[in-house]
Amino acid sequence: MKVVEKLLKEEDFIRFVDIVVGAYPGRMGGLQPTKEQLKALFMHNQNNDASIHYYGLWEENKLVGGMRLHDFEMNLFSKMIPIGGVGLVAVDLLRKKEKVAKELIDYFFKVFLEKNVHFVALYPFRPDFYKKMGFGYGPKMHQYSVEPSSFPKGATKKHLTFLTAQDQHKLADCYRRVASRKHGMFLKTESELASIFKNPQNYIIAAEKGDSIQGYMVFSFNKQSETNFLLNNLVIKEWIYETPEVLLEFSTFLNSQVDQVNRIEWNTQEENIHFFLGDVRNGTNHLIPSVYHASAVSGVGLMYRIINVQGFFEELTTHNFNGQTLTFKLTVKDSLLVENNQQIVIKAIDGNIKISNSTTYDVEMAIDITELSSLVMGVVTVQELFMLSKVKISDEQYVQSLHLFFLVLNKPTCITAF
């Protein structure tokens, strides 16, 4: 019998580290931490960060898997809500394909349902595995690799300055302001903030106006040759900006690196950032037929999941659904959480919703929890799902109304890694 127990104890962590190293061998070697350093890091996280907890799965008193759970807050249409996160899901190499990971995720759901949290997220080691468990895709990440001259050169970069650990509160304040305005952003935890300044490879610059900053950039350098120290790429790890003027000052800085930097790597969820850049080609000279020049490489990563459908929609009673007036029955299929296999009637008047007890409605919409989780966040639209046969609508004349009801003008953004 397998048993999940809350919180790993000190004597459990070295065994958990062995499991983690086997599950993620890329963590070891080179400049990566040793097993003892990993153990110290995990214990420090649990003992000093109230938002992080480690859980283990035992069978016959032997640890066979574990995970790290996070208590986050996320901007859901300008309302901060609690959201659960899971990371570092690791299974003993000898126990693969024995549903250990599934049992861990089941317990992950249980933990946050008991906390009355309705929404969770993770970064998948395999998207298809978690899609089968009801997780829907979040926003794509687009990785650009462009020459410094591709960044527009503005009139000045005089407000840019380096930050030190003593300026952490300024960075935190700036990030909090941006997160409060951007749908999908997570608030930073104290340990996440501290890690930015603890990494010796990080350079941190900011646009300073008076006693506060209006944007910052965290970056590092990657060498491109073992024999030529002059060949380096600049890697942007985090870039936050509050105004177009601040964005242009940072861009001017990047443009000025042309003599030292070969290419600049920028990961962004902004779909149309290529309008800002000059030459967006990534240097591969690859053409997609007929003549489409290879630019950003895109990937799927963050995945969302509703674990309490009715509770989640009750969180949205303060959100206006685009002024729509409509009553529809939402039929949800959830193969993992039986309590989510439910039908609720949502009544919207001028975009304001309430859960109704009525047995009459205009239309029925049937959808899997996977697609619903992406839809409510605005990653995908009703019309797209309808054409892909991922949603069933009892009366097609309501497709447009439902499309407008769920339409999100600003897709979610999330730069929190966990």
UniProtKB/TrEMBL annotation:
<dbReference type="InterPro" id="IPR000182">
    <property type="entry name" value="GNAT_dom"/>
</dbReference>
<dbReference type="Pfam" id="PF17668">
    <property type="entry name" value="Acetyltransf_17"/>
</dbReference>
<dbReference type="InterPro" id="IPR051554">
    <property type="entry name" value="Acetyltransferase_Eis"/>
</dbReference>
<dbReference type="GO" id="GO:0016746">
    <property type="term" value="F:acyltransferase activity"/>
</dbReference>
<dbReference type="InterPro" id="IPR016181">
    <property type="entry name" value="Acyl_CoA_acyltransferase"/>
</dbReference>
<protein>
    <submittedName>
        <fullName>GNAT family N-acetyltransferase</fullName>
        <ecNumber>2.3.1.-</ecNumber>
    </submittedName>
</protein>
<dbReference type="InterPro" id="IPR041380">
    <property type="entry name" value="Acetyltransf_17"/>
</dbReference>
<keyword id="KW-0808">Transferase</keyword>
<dbReference type="InterPro" id="IPR036527">
    <property type="entry name" value="SCP2_sterol-bd_dom_sf"/>
</dbReference>
<keyword id="KW-0012">Acyltransferase</keyword>
<dbReference type="Pfam" id="PF13530">
    <property type="entry name" value="SCP2_2"/>
</dbReference>
<dbReference type="Pfam" id="PF13527">
    <property type="entry name" value="Acetyltransf_9"/>
</dbReference>
<dbReference type="InterPro" id="IPR025559">
    <property type="entry name" value="Eis_dom"/>
</dbReference>
<feature type="domain" description="N-acetyltransferase">
    <location>
        <begin position="3"/>
        <end position="158"/>
    </location>
</feature>
